[in-house]
Amino acid sequence: MSQKVFVSAQEVAERAGVSRSAVSRTFTHGASVSPETRRKVLEASEALGYHVNHLARGLMRNESGIVCLIVSDMGTPYRSNLIRALTQQLQDAGKIAMLVNTDRSDGSVDLALRQAIRYRADASIILSGMPDKSITQLCLKNGQRLVLINRDDEQEGPLRINLDDAESASRVLTAFVRAGCQRMAFANSEAGTPSLMARERGFIAAAKALGIDVVVERFGPTGYESGKILAQRLLTRRERPDAVFCATDLLACGFMDTARHQFSISVPDQLCIAGFDDIAQASWSSYQLTTFSQPVEAIAREAVTWLDEADPAIARQSVRLHADLIWRSSIRGG
Amino acid sequence: MSQKVFVSAQEVAERAGVSRSAVSRTFTHGASVSPETRRKVLEASEALGYHVNHLARGLMRNESGIVCLIVSDMGTPYRSNLIRALTQQLQDAGKIAMLVNTDRSDGSVDLALRQAIRYRADASIILSGMPDKSITQLCLKNGQRLVLINRDDEQEGPLRINLDDAESASRVLTAFVRAGCQRMAFANSEAGTPSLMARERGFIAAAKALGIDVVVERFGPTGYESGKILAQRLLTRRERPDAVFCATDLLACGFMDTARHQFSISVPDQLCIAGFDDIAQASWSSYQLTTFSQPVEAIAREAVTWLDEADPAIARQSVRLHADLIWRSSIRGG
DNA sequence: CCGCTCTTTGCAAGCGTGTGCAAATGCTGC
DNA sequence: GCAGCATTTGCACACGCTTGCAAAGAGCGG
User: What average pLDDT score do residues A187-215 get?
Assistant: First the structure.
């Protein structure tokens, strides 16, 4: 291992002919330094290549500037897009993102939070998985702020950011009905994530209000392949559905591909399809999927501004955002 | 801002009735502690919820355990997949990833590296953009290790991981020729990334060796939309190409969609298409794209193991990996 | 019981910062 | 020139940890 030799404030001070505190103050926002010393310090730092050691600063200030993102399936379009938005806005707010991958096991969300504590992260943002209550308590006790995105946990303390899943689901149903669809289906994964389940329940409830039955099928993880399987199951039923709401766009893409290529079903003429997330592929001309756009920028903004808010005791605990309906041609009419 | 109150080794020591160094040694691999004290320390830590402060540890050891990933377009399938592989393998090696988004401006790669220095990252891995030479020098001078993925820079010091782009390009040409294609085209973005340019040059060179001309078109950023524009340009030529190698899969998907839906061209009957990266969408049944799989796991492994290697002076500087040809039905024959 | 070796333990220095406090400096008005 | 004040500067301590060093303890053969 190479010997790291970073230049310290001490060396800068010596070169600039001032005290070390002067150097520190030059790089501390709102500290009192004369323009003259400031100039000398900046000159010396530039010459030596000095950079404030944020580990030491974090140690002193008891505030590291680190925010931990806890994510699984980060290769997925929706997740990666959310990560992009979050990292960007965190950087704009002068913070830095630490990324923890929780693909391996389920308990790894807890491990991830422990990691966040070790690095004294100012906050953790959980995009997937569900932390054990004891761990979130540990985080909160340590003064670490917590944001749960699309997790809808009932715990006190964290900020919970969610979408109006039920309302969206009900709008899909309306669209299906207007298009003259009769036999409704809902295609879901087996992940059981709160937001996915909320869409399912919302769709069923909206249908029930109109006296319509919904066939529900669930399979596997929330991905393209599962969409294909779900299509095989739903489209081989005696009473083949003529409208299906897929819990996510990835499921919808798989569903649509199988409907078209394996069953030679025409979309939207014989089958209307809706998705959720508005991933990039939904707008590709092979899909033209009607879907709801996850307001990733707004989600990120809510999370980041909340982290800067003064008193966690007064801060709001829950935010519900709206997902716009993006109308494309996978549903008739419009 | 809430008052963070983390429990320190001092408190654990008091509760366990031992010295603070005993606590430290309990959590230091390879230090000498008796089983009895170890037990007492672990018990007390558990009860108090103690976690070693990695900021302080990094300060002392001069080794933070942080590795900085510098990325643009992280919402993109290939990039996000590489990030996934890297974070996972870094975690397995006991390190943690810090993610810096460089979408904003071009100089932001330099800003990102400065950020890495501030947090005393042990290393930085650059997936996109090109750092200024003065900055990489600064990093190396500070003992920070550097990995460049698919950047093919000629600088000394960093590890450069690249693929055999030229060979891949030549294999595509062979496949096109075998399929009986006559009029070759290469579709590229205007990004000018070394790997993209290597594929372009390799394809042209392989064609020239057989006395075949290649029409080259370049447009915009490296994404789906650019693929559509490129198709419009290439497919409206008087001599319409019957084979096109797209520099990436995203370009290929856009190209294929436009060829089919706007020009009603049948793939692969009238037009053969190849891509590069093997993103998830390439295997979707709407595309079935013949392409080369980026060996993301191998790339990540090379990067992570290199970081653990003993002496940076002896360490190798460059690695060339092979991209497997994934044969699907966007090229005739096979 | 002594001398020897080996392991375990505590002390204290040091990592690179931020910041309260008091001293020093500069400026203003008389 | 001097008192009065605001601003700037340096000192020294604190943050939480690792680790070299020496002292203490444990085990053991003679």
Answer: 96
